[in-house]
Design brief:
Structural class of chain A: mainly beta
Oligomer: heterodimer
Shape of chain B: elongated
CATH topology of one domain in chain B: Pyruvate Kinase, Chain: A, domain 1
Largest interface: A-B, 23 and 29 residues
Structural class of chain B: alpha/beta
CATH superfamily of chain A: F0F1 ATP synthase delta/epsilon subunit, N-terminal
Strand content of chain A: over 45%
Distance between the termini of chain A: 22 Å
Number of strands of chain B: 6
Order of helices and strands of chain A: EEEEEEEEE
Number of strands of chain A: 9
CATH architecture of chain A: Sandwich
Amino acid sequence: MYLEIVSPEATLFSSEVDSVVVPGVKGEFEMLNNHAPIVSTLKEGTVRIKVHTQTHIVYDELHSDIEPHFEDQKVLTLNIKSGTVESKDNKVIVLAD
Amino acid sequence: MANLKEIRNRISSVSSTMQITSAMKMVSAAKLKKAQDAITAMRPYSNKLTELLQDLSATLDADSGSKYAEQRPINKVLLVAITSNRGLCGAFNSNIIKQVGHLMNDTYKGKSVSVLAIGKKANDAFSKSNLVVANESDVFDDLTFENVERVANAIMTMFEEGEYDRVDIVYNSFKNAATQIVMTEQFLPIKPIEGDANNNLDYIFEPSKLEIVETLIPKSLKTQLFKSVRDSFASEHGARMTAMHKATDNATELRDQLKLTYNKARQAAITNEILEIVGGAEALNS
């Protein structure tokens, strides 16, 4: 599935990923391929992105707010204050602020 | 014929002015590029947000009961005037000030109108008549979403508490480096969002559709203000670049003219001297 994370100031992330975990207001949840269409508001927390194992991540090209997880380099994390997530047709958009 | 030294002084003063204006033009051109990139960077966010709101409100009842959509009889109006902190940018600031004056005297005639100034020039123009309720010029020192968000929150609270019945934003929208369009946008109460009814995907909503819309509306308002401020910022540099370009051109023309006068005066002086010598020699011979 395709994941796009945008903030009012920049596009933070845009790439094909395996899964993403977002901090929903009613609790954290994970979205995998072919997730049902969903719209949810997000609370303060961490977005965890699991990148394809074969994808080569160019760490230097990542936005400075996105950091690789300390245990697993294929997991990227981003701290957000609030936001909204929309998923449909295998495309996930996170509006982070 | 003007005296040579005088013309020489004028030439050097015009030349140094020209250096300053062309340097200012360069600086503005560099800043304009940055400001333009910033506008492009925020476009995906604002587009997605509008898209999402449209998707949601299509399936929502027309009157979602949002506190920001409340239409009240208009008595107290707040105009958010976005100008620049610095001058030397042509008609950029005076266009805004004129437009605000026009709104006060025509559109909102007889209503109590206040101004919230973003930019020192607007504050200077309206503080004399005690119309300015707040001066938020420092957002330009550090133009981030957080700073603009703070201003937007303040405006939204004032609207909610009934201090104002209508809020408009007046700003220069960025068309290209040479053209700015003065825009007056309704900020509050929000206009009903027109949804696209064809797009009826079966969404899961968390927590509920209404609550999502209610968190999205303030966000879209903040984004709207942020976009206006950013647009104005890019327009300012565009306007200054054009103004300084024209100033440099004018100075070049003036300098060329002065050089011509200087050379004419110099030649006239030489001719005079020769005449005197020849005249003297003639007198000796005869």
